[in-house]
């Protein structure tokens, strides 16, 4: 895998922006469930039906999949136990194990339900969940929808039935090795989100799955324009006189506290100011990567309204490309535009992910004759 793929870089940046804004509020249950039921269901449990019934899979499995598992455990106990054991314990190639699990459990189910119109749901998704619960340090939770979307993002063909999970495992491990494990900021964010009582995900496989699910399945957009990222930089005019710094030509750098590794020269920026007249005041372009700067060397010392400590900080070069200081697009008009409904503005913080669609929507608002202008 290309370790500097801009599409993957952008996907991870969007996930970090999501976590920064929403945390793991709706997703923490995955870490909780695996922490509680790790190693289960145990295929060697004396009462296999009771063992399967006791395990909470949440929404990670189709409800029918668990119903069939319980039916097989009750009516075909020992053969189904052998199927589960072969899937979880054998060390043969993963695609071979999953194919055998699907085929052998289907044969058992047809003994109970002969009608072929009824599926048995012991597919790659079910097998992936069973494997992840059994050994989450080695196996990732799988879903066909984000697997195919990730293949599309990478520009590669997805595999066919019976070969998908093995391919997915390879892609997830590459994602972890080449991107997630190298992203200290992401790992710090996740460490702050995970209580000590939940599964800590030392190999980041659950995190990889969550990134794919949140960004690709839940609609956190990914820009696929080659090499170009989109950001929103937010400033407080009560802290720094941004308008005067821009007018004087002295806004050359911007402090960076998030998404440091994802930003690159050439990326586009929406410059947003908070306060009574909050809104978009300019568009800009990044001119460098993130660098350590010395506060005493900055040309913008006189624009700080609140004194700043004279210490090193991380910042990125910035050049204004569209100056709307005298007629910004205020928040009231931004909120009225459906294309900007998810704009990451007004939250606590400085650096947020934006999208090309949002950037273009702001340009369109300024270029449309009847677009609201807000002279300042």
How would you describe the overall organization of this protein?
The structure is a single chain. By secondary structure, the chain is α+β, with helices and mostly antiparallel strands. It is built from 14 helices and eight strands. The chain has helices at residues 6-22, 28-37, 48-54, 63-75, 77-89, 94-112, 124-134, 144-154, 164-178, 184-193, 205-217, 242-247, 331-335, 356-367; strands at residues 230-235, 253-255, 268-273, 279-286, 291-294, 312-323, 329-330, 351-353. Strands 1, 2, 3, 4, 5, 6, 7 and 8 form an eight-stranded mixed beta sheet that branches. α4 (63-75) crosses α5 and α5 packs antiparallel against α6. The protein is elongated. The chain starts with 5 loop residues before the first helix and ends in a 9-residue tail after the last helix. Mean pLDDT is 89; it is low at 222-226.
Q: Kindly report how far apart the N and C termini lie.
A: 49 Å
Largest sheet: 8 strands, mixed
Query: How much strand content do the residues show?
Result: 5-15%
What is the number of strand segments?
Answer: 8
Q: Globular, elongated, flat, extended or rod-shaped: what is the shape? A: elongated
Mean of all residue-level pLDDT scores: 89
Counting copies of identical and different chains, the oligomeric state is single chain
Kindly provide the radius of gyration, computed on alpha-carbon positions and rounded to a whole number of angstroms: 25 Å
**Order of helices and strands, N to C?**
HHHHHHHHHHHEHEEEEEEHEH
Provide the structure class: alpha+beta
How many H/I helical runs? 14
Which runs of at least 5 residues are low in confidence (pLDDT < 50)? 222-226
